[in-house]
Specification:
- This protein has 15 helices and nine strands.
- By secondary structure, it is of the alpha/beta class.
- The structure holds coproporphyrinogen III.
- Coproporphyrinogen III binds next to β3.
């Protein structure tokens, strides 16, 4: 069955735009907090397929969204390659750092064994697929090489990427090897996710905006395109969504011009002008986004008005997927999410 979401990804006209919400399973939901307590640590939850399936389904049951996204995290890849990963309450993720450029050259041999760590995710996907209505899509995901590599190099990627950038300048061979190994490991991971039930995949390049122009090709574009080539060779019909956050419109347009079947959609962050994106990207790739998650901290009326504005711009385009411009925040009141959902679903 072709889902509403897949139709939009093929840039076909749909009755209304499909809707899902980045980080839709998470701390703004009381039922998530319950399951999270039961699981123990955040990583315990990611690696427990029964509970990960349960939290994936929670926002679908509550809001009848058009796609479920496997519950996991982008940082399971460094973990699967043998690096310690911890989620410290109030601090975010702490990943063991690459110490010397030589360390990078020991990573490639670890790819062969990564499924020893990642197999619970594949089990989670099969379980979700059994529970999820066939009219809905199941999204698999991973992080992009630059974003994941940043967590292996810099202490606080949300504040600084200078160690990663310094490596790119000072140890270009090791840096390129890191991007390449992460691209191969992540593409293999997404292929297995597709074979376990994901019918769409999204690659999160959350820190793509912290790359200077001279490094954009090597750190962002080529690693992402390499992943797309590996995935499409095996699964040409599975749509790929790229989310290069905080990348300017010229770069987004350049990527869209080169998409040509390599990837299917661009996720836009909330800094992008949707009307301009419509003009410059339309017909090349499907477009997803981009309501500011901070709007969901206001009132239902405000959310309804702003969502309506977004839809009035975007519904002109075939191939539009309604979403936020970044992940929903833990403080979001449920009634504001309901206002967004109702506005899209009755459009
Ligand atoms: O969308 C979904 O519902 C699926 C789950 C999902 C999570 N992380 C669960 C999570 C997805 C798609 C991610 C992706 C992810 N993880 C990204 C890319 C998207 C983005 O937001 O930019 C990044 C950069 C990460 C790394 C990461 N994981 C950070 C920075 C944090 C801490 C941030 C915070 O809000 O505390 C996490 C932890 C995390 N990942 C949580 C969840 C629900 C919160 C942890 C908890 O429940 O204690």
């Amino acid at each position: 069955m072709t889902t509403l979401f897949q139709k939009a990804l093929k840039q076909e006209q749909t009755e209304r735009p499909p809707l899902w919400i980045m980080r839709q399973a998470g701390r703004y939901l009381p039922e998530y907090l319950e399951t999270r307590k039961e699981a123990g640590s955040f990583l315990d939850l990611c690696y427990n397929s029964d509970l990960a399936c349960e939290v994936t389904m929670q926002p679908i049951r509550r809001f009848n969204l058009d796609a479920a996204i496997m519950f996991s995290d982008i940082l399971v890849i460094p973990h699967a390659l043998g690096y310690d990963v911890q989620f410290v309450a109030g601090e975010g993720p702490v990943v063991e750092k690459l110490k010397t450029p030589e360390d990078v050259f020991n990573l490639r041999e670890k790819i062969a064994d990564q499924d020893n760590v990642l197999s619970p995710m594949y089990k989670t996907l099969s379980k979700i697929r059994e529970k999820l209505d066939t009219s809905k899509s199941l999204i698999g995901f991973c992080g992009a090489p630059w974003t994941v590599g940043l967590y292996m190099l810099d202490d606080k990627p949300s504040k600084d990427s200078s160690r990663a950038r310094t490596w790119a300048y000072k140890h270009p061979k090791a840096f390129l090897e890191l991007m390449d190994v992460l691209a191969e490991s992540s593409a293999a991971y997404l292929i297995k996710q597709i074979e376990s039930g994901a019918d769409v995949v999204q690659i999160f390049d959350s820190w793509a905006g912290s790359v200077p122009p001279d490094l954009f090709e090597a750190a962002v574009k080529q690693p992402l395109f390499k992943m797309c080539r590996i995935i499409k060779e095996k699964h040409p019909n599975t749509p790929i969504i790229l989310f290069p956050r905080c990348v300017n419109m010229n770069k987004l347009e350049e990527m869209a011009n080169e998409a040509k079947g390599l990837f299917d959609a661009l996720g836009l962050d909330f800094t992008v002008d949707l009307e301009e994106a419509h003009k410059r990207l339309q017909g090349k790739v499907a477009i997803q986004g981009n309501l500011d998650p901070a709007l969901l901290l206001t009132t239902p009326k405000k959310v309804e008005n702003e969502a309506q504005k977004m839809l009035d711009i975007a519904a002109k385009m075939p191939g539009y997927i309604a979403n936020l411009g970044h992940g929903i925040t833990p403080q979001t009141p449920i009634e504001n999410v309901e206002a967004l959902v109702q506005t899209v679903q009755k459009y």
